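so my prof wants the structure for this chain in the tokens format not the other one, which i didnt know existed until like an hour ago. anyway here's the sequence
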Amino acid sequence: MTPRRWVLAGAAVLFLWWLGGHDLWAPDEPYFAEGAREMIVDGQWAVPHVNGKVTPDKPPLFFWLIALLSLPVGEVTPLTARLPSALAALGTVALTLRLGRRLYGPATAALAGGMLATSFLFWDKARWSQTDALLCFLIWVALSAFEAWRAGDAGGRRAGLLFWLAAALAVLTKGPVGLLLPLGIALVVLALERDLVRWRGFAPLAGPAVFTAVAGAWVAWATLGGPSDYSVWGALREHFIDRGLHGMHHRQPWWYFLERLPQSLMPWSGLIPGALVLAWRRRGRGDRLLAAAALFVILFFSISTEKRELYALPSLPAFTLLMAALVARVATWRESEVLPPVAVDRRWVTVGQGVIGGLLALVGLALPLAVGQLEGVPVPRALLLTLAGTFATAGVATVVFSWRGRVVASIVAPASGCVAIYLLVVTLAYPAMEPVKSARPFTATIARATADSRAAGLPVVAYRLDNLPEHFAFWGGGLYTVETGDPELLRRHLERPERVWAVVHGGALEPLPPELLERLWVTDTTRLARRDVLLVANHELPGARRLSEVVEARPGARSDEGSDG
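here's what i got, hopefully its the right format
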């Protein structure tokens, strides 16, 4: 096989191997899976709804894809919920290979594709039921069309239509950011080339018309055919404008990505400085596009108050292409006649990789010492020791190769180590973590205990549990709870004369009256999403314990707010 096919095959193994081997975990996976399940069950496809109520958080495309992939098997499963992300990530690797071949050459393209597939954040999100892998793919469909037009390989009308269609689908995946990122990058590139006037040749009328038709069709459907209390514009204001200006769940300082990006690009983050320096010195056609794409994404989200590590995902293809170009130049691969001959010291590669190798070796040494620190996570000691040995071996090999100035070997060593680590984690570590990560067993307990109460029309209240009610709805096949953070509502519910139930955050009960706490009974407890979760009834039951006794018995009576939202 060609190097391109080897990379695609390897990426497919990394993204698809044991994809459904563990349950859906907090904070995001059950949210999307439950939204898709309710679409299939209720037949309401215009607007996503989760836990039995409309959710304005996300547009519907990702939910649609999960639901469509689940129809052949008749239900949403962990595999079908994650498959859209895995396929989108594989598509992004293919686009990276194609773009790298056009800009630099086949060997550089293959290296970039391999770097992307083994970058920690990209690999992780390829296997997670979240919108970001799909968003990344659609953004790079748009940018690949822009680059093909810019290079003269495609006409402005055809490339422009693809650009605007991909942007519309990206908006249906995650809102306005799906348009702002590719459009902003394209305009910045043309501005750097002092050729903004050329934009008029990029399907100036037909492209925006396609975008408006696709996005507008959903807006009309959601407005006219969706629930009467749903507003696309209200959702846009709350979850894009207000979130960006004021933050909701993840308020972070402006320098957040300076800390997080090196972690996201492990084990290649040591190459970032050299890659950016080379792009600045060479300033080729591809360098301008990739540097603009990489930095625009980071700066765009740095301005926003709301930040998460995964927001940087669309920048990773650009960074890995630039890093592969650095390695190719240092290793003197002669692939392209159009690149300016810029001399680059090999230390831009070997020093960075040596640092990364040292970090990998330190992780390997620290892992055995961390066994006692993994509170409640039953990862077998033998597996931890195996992972430690793999980290240490890859790290030491990378340091040795870097010290000797062996550029290609200093790249192959950490890549091989990461592949082995990723496969070990997926095959052995994730299943071992199920008891403390999956809400399925606890949901079964809730369903059994509350069956009579729910049959009588009495609700189950979920108090201060943020994203856990969708777990209960998904694993309970429609076990809907009334979500609240209002202690007064919880008090009124538990003071009913009938037997009623609540699922509560054990560290957030202080606002309840002490006399009420003394009358409540706990039938089961678990630890989910860094919270102590209690199943509480207002009448005594066989085998139940008083709530006051359970709370006092908690270690340190801690009041931890483990929000993963």
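also thought this was worth mentioning. Confidence is low (pLDDT under 50) at residues 556-565.
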